[in-house]
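Chain X:
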Amino acid sequence: MPQPPKRLTPSNSALDLFGSEVRRYRVLANHSIKQLADKIPYSASFIGAVERAESHCERTFAEHCDTALDTKEALAHLHDGLFGDKKDGFPEWFRKWPTVEEEAGTLKVYEPTVVYGLLQKEEYASALLFDDREAIDARLARQAILARTDPRPPRVVYVLPEFVLWYNVGGAEVMRAQLQYLAEISTPRLSVQVIPNGVPHPGNEGAFVLATLRDGQEIALAETAARGIMMDTREDISRLKDRFDAICTQALPTSMSADLINRTIEEKWRT
């Protein structure tokens, strides 16, 4: 016997209200979640997570639902009212980058201090952002690109030093959940590779991301102590590509990285 849908209280949060309205319009259209998924480029599991207020979504999700359910743009309008421009929760220098992520076919990421934003769990992000709800929601909303089906999610190659696994963000419970997520998330389109402590590598000059857009354009974001800098000149991109390749040569394969992450959970974050 199927479980009844999760009861939502729309007044609890913007996510609850949006999820309840997606469910309401779907039911009014006499569609199951699977039937809706067959009509839009999002999986049934993602639609269910949105309806249960367990996942943020892009505005394009609302637009696709509006078309499939004939809502006369009600969900897109509601999305605008509840979430506005999802980039508003970002610092000024970062506001263009989420659009780059959305248009990327490939993202190559090196982040030496904390888990990269696209892969942060909500509790981990909350600890880093000091419970700033607007900033947390903006960061989590970026992650919708990993769940889309059309276009395909970007191919993400994420490399991090082992230190990140030991850096306490939010306490043991938050760290366990975050590291378990990293250990389990690898797919053919998303890899997590760890550089063991003590292995020399040229990644000591800060975090950076290399994005290759679906049209072939290459853009990078390199972080400094004060701000991030977007760059697209051939010389800068070539230098960062060489550095990323050199870093990758010192990283463990994905399966061995997952083993190292799981060992760290046992050794450091079990209470």
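Chain Y:
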Amino acid sequence: MTATEGAVLEIDLAAIAANWRSLAARHPTGPVAGVVKADAYGLGATRVAPALFAAGCRHFFVAHLNEALALRPLLPGAMIAVLNGPLPGTEPAYLTHDITPVLGARDAIARWSQPDLAPHPAILHIDTGMNRLGLDAHDIAALRADPTQLARLTLRYVMTHLVSSEIPDDPENLRQAAAFAAARTLFPGVPHSTANSSGLFLGPRFASDLARPGAALYGINPTPGLRNPMQPTIRLRAQVLQVRHIAQGESVGYNATWRAARPSRIATACVGYADGWPRSLSGRGHAIFDARAVPLVGRVSMDLTTYDVTDFPSIAPGAWLDLIGPGIPIDAVADAAETNGYEILTRLGARYARTWRA
């Protein structure tokens, strides 16, 4: 697919770098990492991570070891940490390629405490309420009772993950901060990492030695309900393949979920759920053309989506509709799809013609 065939995803690397600088300015107590897991939230980690590196970022987080290995040659000297931690048997790859594991279970600590591994730095993950990965209160108590394994670790940071940071008045935020502070007494002098994207906007109580924003880098609003402080970073457009006239009462799309209330013009655009365009937008979403909303009608199908362009006489085959971009931010699309901006970005498929602007 070329940039003139069907659907185009334009990615603004300069805006991503600017968002990182803006977040770094909000966190004077320590550096700000770049979370580039899931292929930099679907936007291309091998393009995004070097742009962040050029902007001054020297700490990166991914979810899986293979993501870290792909980025290591592009980020010389930078810390690359794997949030999911080392699976048994993968430890040599961490050593060979200078990858930092995030240790979130006692068995991982035991494996990483072996004499041939212990000098290599790690990050320790303390769970304060997410209940996914990380050491829970029972683990911390056990380590307090027998700290010998910890004595063999070289820790870069201890970290936790906030549960509700996008809701500033959620009492869970302060409860987690207190729990993390109590757990950190087991690690005197070890730097700590707290804030994610929204956590950077919670105030000084959540400042730490390393912040770890992800979504905000890519233009997702870290302060829902308030003006988005981040720059938009993508524009997603789909081309109209065909425009047809239908009579009042005729249906459009699978299962005839929409019928024309008047004689209508229907534009079929080259995008569908195989491209990651949510089926849940059926009958709910819209596109933008000439700064006006164009309603999505009928069901989103695998390769095609239909729009009512009756009130847009200039829309013809070859016209481009904005799906994300000017007048239609990621968060608005996510709201219409009843999901979040994270899912919208990470689902964007491989069939788009992608362009990156430095």
